[in-house]
Amino acid sequence: MSKENYRIRTMNKDEVELAVGWAASEGWNPGTYDAQSYYLADPNGFLIGLIDEEPVAVISAIKYSVEFGFIGFYIVKPEFRGKGYGYALWQAAMAYLSSCNVGLDGVVDQQDNYRKSGFELAYRNIRYEGEFTASHGLEDTPSSMLISSEFNLLHTQDFERPFFPANRDGFNNQWRLQPNAHALTISSGRKIKGYGVIRACQSGYKIGPLYAEDTKCAKALVTSLIAKITTHDGCEKVYLDVPECNQRAVDLAESLGMIVVFETARMYTKEMPSLPLDRTFGVASFEIG
Fold it and tell me: In the chain, which stretches have pLDDT less than 70?
């Protein structure tokens, strides 16, 4: 690595779009409009490595709080790999999150490399893919429940917060409002029993997050979200990323005829956060948690 002409700095908002584009080229299938939501999570958390002002490496290091951060978007242009540029960027990202318990969703065969940086495996996340038509409707909605896109923001925020190690209300609000996305709650009376978002991606749509009190609520949300994006004469690919340790989520995906197409290793530098994974039926994002 030539240190003389290599520098690392914080990305601007437009450069986050570049990182999302690189992720798409790597086959990670990010959301079409994810960049703005990601940038709002931490405007200082996206780093770029440049040689003579040419971008050659990117990474995200989202500092949600002084206690918790998340690493993602770790990509080096193929022709610059193996030369130390990526590792220098990695070190800068980890230095930015030095006070935090840091999480990541890494490619499984890179676990040993992440362990060298202090990460330990917590569990696997599994990406499921399925093809759906408009026939997947609301027939699974429990009669005592109401599914709606009109919901109380404060109640929804209160419902979401336990599912993540830090407050990220700003990100969550932007996530559900991005173009070509739909957010639904399922509730009984005034109590929210589940919440989910579906959004357009480079290929098809992803459901995430998907949080629910039980499998019936989760399935009702999934079928209702799918109904938002399917037409009677079309078929859409839908992806759902589930924690493998939640057997109910795995069973739900497989009951819908979805198949495994990818997996990641969820790892942390410190103790695994105490989260309701038994009620987490879909992860919001492999890139920023």
Answer: 1-4, 135-143, 232-234
Q: How far is CA 105 from the centre of its chain?
A: 9
Q: Would you call 173 helix, strand, or coil by DSSP?
A: helix
pLDDT of residue 141: 63
**Tokens encoding 107:** 């490619």
Structure tokens that stand for 151 in this block = 């919901």
pLDDT value of residue 138? 45
pLDDT recorded at residue 232 = 60
DSSP tag of 31? B
Strand partners, 162: none
Which pair of tokens denotes residue 153? 């923001």
CATH 3.40.640.10 fits 126-265, yes or no: no
Q: Where are the beta strands (DSSP E) in the chain?
A: 6-10, 46-51, 54-63, 68-76, 101-107, 120-132, 146-148, 181-188, 191-200, 205-212, 236-243, 259-268, 280-282
User: Taking the complete model, does pTM exceed 0.90, yes or no?
Assistant: yes
Identify whether the C-beta of residue 61 lies closer than 8 Å to the C-beta of residue 93.
Answer: yes
Q: Do domains 3-125 and 126-265 have the same CATH topology?
A: yes
How is the chain split into domains, by residue range? 3-125, 126-265
Residue 39 to residue 14: CA distance in whole angstroms: 10
- Distance, in Å, from the CA atom of 2 to the CA atom of 85, rounded to the nearest integer, reads 9
- Per the CB < 8 A criterion, the answer to whether 14 and 32 are in contact is no
3-125: CATH class: alpha beta
Residue pLDDT, tens place only, 180-204 = 999 999 998 889 999 999 999 999 9
Q: Could you tell me where the DSSP H helices lie in 29-161? A: 34-41, 85-96, 111-116, 153-160
